Amino acid sequence: MATKKLLVKDSSNTFNDKLVTFAADVPEDVLCACCWNISSQLMADPRDHLYCKSCLAMLDNDGKFDCVTDYAVHNIDEMKDRSERFREALKLIANCPNEGCNYRATLREIMTHYKTCVVKMAKCPLCQKEVNKKALAAHISSVCEHRLVNCPYCGMEVEDRHLKNHMQDCDERPATCPHCAEEFDTFAELRDERLLTCRSKPTKCPYARVGCNFQATANMMEKHAASCQHLTSLIDRVLHLEAELQDVKSALEEAKKDKEQLKQLIADKEDEYHKTDEYVRKNLQEDIDEVRTQVQKVERDYKTSESDLRARFQALEQRNTFLDEPIGKLLAEMATMN
């Protein structure tokens, strides 16, 4: 694996975790096999696979780790120092990671330069990005994606970021007929004139409605349409439609039968309901009449009993009045005797 943009991990963290862009692919023999970055503290396993100390600490499992390259298990105390690989990396050509700085040199020189690198930045009035103040004019005229450029076909001004899409759809762009391969100065001419009349443009068979899927140029279609095969296709189509019609008729008859059966079932249920309702009404009336008779009998018995009780009560009152005077005399005599 090789890369051009990566971290440079040194003990002083010189670049503050900024990515450094290299002028060429970085060789694997100076990179950590786990994070694929440059480190000043590289260690090698028995098979010379390199690891930076931070990745090795992450992989540490009770003093052992699984190699990410061949999955072999190694003891960490078997690792050997390979810091000389960092000295090899310092010879690689790289760019200053400060945005807007164009300084390019060896990584060693970049690390020294970065400590004092001060870039005066300015905001692009078009894209609002911060760029090197010295390079602002060049950025606006030839780099900024928001700058206006002219379409090479129609001359229309569009933003640079939209130019590619505009050119792909521009009516004034050169075009080639996809059917006859004739070239046209503009796509508008091809679209509005040739595509409508091109004899090489495939067309559908006029008998497509009866199942013919043949497509060809206008010249070939005339010969094809004159063939008798369409009569066979038409007959097959008619027979197929007749079969479908017969299936529909059969389904309709079946639906009618089901409808009649359903109507008869509903009629039977209604008749059964009416009979049940009549039976219930009749029995209910008989019960009402019987209860009414019993109530009338109770009323008659009550009236008879009431009359008898009144007569007995009057008789008792008369007897009480009749006996009241003799009893009074008897009590008076008994009192005299005492």
Automatic annotation (TrEMBL):
Metal-binding is among the record's keywords: yes
Keywords: Coiled coil, Metal-binding, Zinc, Zinc-finger
Coiled coil: 238-308
Zinc finger (TRAF-type): 112-164
Alphabetized PROSITE patterns for the sequence: ZF_TRAF (PS50145)
Domain TRAF-type as annotated: residue spans: 112-164
Entry protein name: Putative interleukin 1 signal transducer
Record lineage: Eukaryota, Metazoa, Ecdysozoa, Arthropoda, Chelicerata
